[in-house]
User: Fold this.
Amino acid sequence: MKIHPYFPVLLLLASAVPAFSDPGGVPPAREITMTECVEAALRGNIDVAVSRSERETADLAVPMEEAVFLPRFTGDLSYSSSIGPTGSSIAGTLTIDQSAWNFDAGVQELLRSGTTLSLSFENQRLDAGTAISLFDPEYSTALTLSVHHPLLKNSGREATEAPLTIARAGAEAGAGDWLAKVMDTVATARTSFLVFHAASREVEVRKTALSLAEQLLEQTEARIEAGFAAPLDRLPAEAAAASRKEELLRAEAAARNAEDDLKNVLGLRADQDWEER
Assistant:
């Protein structure tokens, strides 16, 4: 028999709220489908939440390691001024007032082969403040290109990309672990849902069987009173009714166990009635 995944199961709401109870004291019921059951299980599962956080953390490590291979630009602008005695009569003044502007810029990039390229530009403007200076202000500029490549340790593409490879492997492992926990939770929720539904239907079937056995017992007693049956005919009917009652008790116990299992999957406490989350 094929069971549709969207068939409803009646769940009891919390009976602690009087406004939702009927005059007879029986708490109302609502229908929940298998899809809603799976969604509630995923929302309330702590392992899935923790695994999702670990997966997101591992995913963030990949762009951080990839950023190592991006060009890095630097810049520096500074100004300094100093006043001091000349120490010489040639300058024509007792003090020398000097000021300097410095502007430096550079770019550095790490290649995946392990080579580091650096380009720097240095520029300085110096105001000497003396009469003996040939150039005032005086400018000095330097442009430097450097290439650095390790020969032994940390040499090669594999060593350079090792942190990135580890980060990607961690992200894949985190995604796989999260997916495994999600699929396990979904399978557990579906199984618990179907078991609870089957147990509930089994209780209904056993109640019907007990009702028929009790009717048969009543008919047998009526036949005995009317003289159409012997008193010994009551024993098979009583035995059948007792057997149906025992089967009902077993079915109710199995239904309660299935109910507790489904509550645990949904994140509900087993000592409470069903709650609408």
